[in-house]
Automatic annotation (TrEMBL):
Domain of life where this protein originates: Eukaryota
Coiled coil: 105-132
GO cellular component: mitochondrion
Keyword Coiled coil among UniProt keywords: yes
Transmembrane segments: none
GO biological process, alphabetically ordered: regulation of lipid metabolic process
Ranges for region Disordered: 29-58, 144-189
Name of the featured protein: OPA3-domain-containing protein
Keywords of this entry: Coiled coil
Organism expressing this protein natively: Patellaria atrata CBS 101060
Family: Belongs to the OPA3 family.
Amino acid sequence: MRLGLLQDPAVIERQIAKELAEAEAKRKKSQIPTVKTEAQMKADESAAAREKREISEKAKGANKSVRIRPLSESKAIETGANFISETFLFLVAGGLIIFENFRSRRKESNRREGVADRIEALEAENATLKTHLVHLDKVISSLESKQGKSLPEPQPTPKDLIKPLKPDANKSSKDQPGAEDKSKNSASS
């Protein structure tokens, strides 16, 4: 819709009058008060008439009502169907994005809750094992005090017998097996 349709004709006429007055004032200001020849007077009058005509044509062009071509029924149905189908597609796509975002957030929070639950269970189990260990230490010390001698040292567990596969970083290369062979080979070369 053109903005010319929303304008008031009275406002347009006032604007035309204002522009004419400004043009006339500008023309009078630029003139030097001297006597003009007849040719100069005709040229000034024709220029003023041309300015008035241009301004009024400009205003008439803005004041014309625009004829809007009617839309055929088939074109209207096609446009409406396209709008509805595109709206449906965008709504479905937006819904899927929101659903997937919600689902991934829920999955992550469930995973975090599961990890937190497992940590709590392990901490509780660790605490009960510590209390059992303290209780067993008390039982052992009470048995030792009753018998008056200490019990034999416990046998090492299989976990203690297994050596780590990677050497410790704080050990020097001399402590590692095979390091002596390498140093001997390099010295003999």
